[in-house]
Amino acid sequence: xxxxxxxxxVIDYFLHHAPDAExxxxxxxxxxxxxxxxxxxxxxDKRVNMTTPAIFEKYPDADxxxxxxxxxxxxxxxxxxxxxxxxxxxxxxAKMLQEQFNGEVPLTVEELVQLPxxxxxTANVITSVVDQQPNMAVDTxxxxxxxxxxxxxxxKTPLATEKQLIQHIPKELIHIAHHWLILHGRxxxxxxxxxxxxxxxxxxxxxxQKNVAVKK
DNA sequence: ATCCCGAGGG
DNA sequence: CCCTCTGGAT
Length: 216
Description:
Number of strands: 0
Radius of gyration: 19 Å
CATH topology of the largest domain: Endonuclease III, domain 1
Order of helices and strands: HHHHHHHHHHHH
Largest sheet: none
Distance between the termini: 22 Å
């Protein structure tokens, strides 16, 4: 099977089985999505969603969040990974939104990565989810799943994974393909003991063929 | 002990 | 490239 055929098989499968895949983070506008994605670093979406409603109620926009003090905001974030960093990042991010972007979330990767707490992955999430830009955010799930299936070849960094995926996935499908890989990684192709018996694409999966199929 | 939609700094 | 940040779930 060629690499092109592998991509085609995977795309066809998810187009049929997950045509409406989308983020599981709770949000109502770009500002809320940005806050949620910053909080999601090394933390499950489920746990982020437990904290964001209270944050959005007290800090409904960049203006109110920019005026928060560390001690006011910290308790909301305390039970998430890296609460110190994330509290600082959120306030700093909101201040820069106010000072440089009229309180609105910019929708280019170049502008987004200037914000405290926003790196390439977060910028790709915002621009692809809010604006359907053909940017591929590579998180731990996308990285792992792509490597296992064989969508990526010898990709050792998230950036390498991003470039290979963008090269092989049609532009108009990149933003949804991100969610296909995320959700597949979260519920089926999990890090430890992947649930290959539940997986619909083992026929083209390098990991399955190497580690599972041979033992049967 | 390992993992979760990483970012910043050295 | 490396390291640190750092809590909860499994």
